[in-house]
Amino acid sequence: MRYAVISDIHSNLTALDAVLEAARPFDVLLCLGDVVGYGPDPNECVARLHSYPLTCIAGNHDLAAIGQLDLSRFNPDERQANYWTRDELSRESRDFLSDLPNTIKLGSFLLAHGSPVNPVWEYLDSLYLAKDNFMRFDFQTAFVGHTHIALAIEWDSKQKEASFLQANASALSLAKDRLILNPGSVGQPRDDDPRASYAIMDTEKMSWEFRRTPYNIERTQKRMRNCGLPKRLIERLQYGW
Ligand code: ZN
User: Fold this and answer.
1) What domain range includes position 57?
2) 204 alpha carbon – ligand 1 mean position (Å)
3) Residue 83's Cα: distance from chain center in Å?
4) How many domains does the chain contain in total?
């Protein structure tokens, strides 16, 4: 099976469409949450995901947009964008987001937006947190998002040690002891590379490939401006910050 693995779309339809085009062919779309929030096209992004064979979990922005998370941990820009998203969501989009689970177990795979330990809030960006997650769960590979930065961490069960693997374009073997993988963000990358970030996973070849694809950033920015979304959220897209 060939999966397109995506996360943190954040209502950026232009980026999502560029990724879906570049990722072809794939059998299933695996989405690690934060479909909405920040960007201008929440309903369109939900509808687009819906048109594919899809496995999807909820992110903190998705939960906030349907009123299941209080916004006190969001900064003012995030809060403003989230209120805008709430008002914008159609009945169908709200139903779709309401049905998303916080985690999904697919055989030896575990999907969680933040981390297996704390699917909604934890930013799994360090070896310390990786170790904590490896020790407390029995997944072979966990897929996470939330940080908006591509990442691969390997676990050595004998030594009980976690180490970073290079998160670049060359294919990575899934036939490792244990792994935590983050495909980066489709709609708002934060690693100083503004191109949309995603991954292709092939479970027959047991391979994982980090991918980047350019998209029309100005188009998304223009749409955000028309929606009256915060300036800082509009500008950051062109820097990948
Ligand atoms: Zn996010």
Assistant:
1) 2-239
2) 29
3) 21
4) 1
Please give the distance, rounded to the nearest whole angstrom, from the Cα atom of residue 38 to the centre of ligand 1: 9
Query: Would the pTM of this model clear 0.90, i.e. be above it?
Result: yes
Cα(158) to centroid(ligand 1), Å: 33
CATH of the domain at 15: 3.60.21.10
Q: How far apart are the first and last CA of the chain?
A: 33
Torsions phi, psi for 209 (to 5 deg): -130, 120
Dist. CA 159 → ligand 1 center (Å): 33
**Quick one: how many helices (H) and strands (E) in the chain?**
8, 12
Q: How far, in Å, is the centroid of ligand 1 from the Cα of 34?
A: 5
pLDDT digits over 149-203, tens only?
Answer: 999 999 999 999 999 998 887 789 998 899 999 999 999 999 999 999 999 999 9
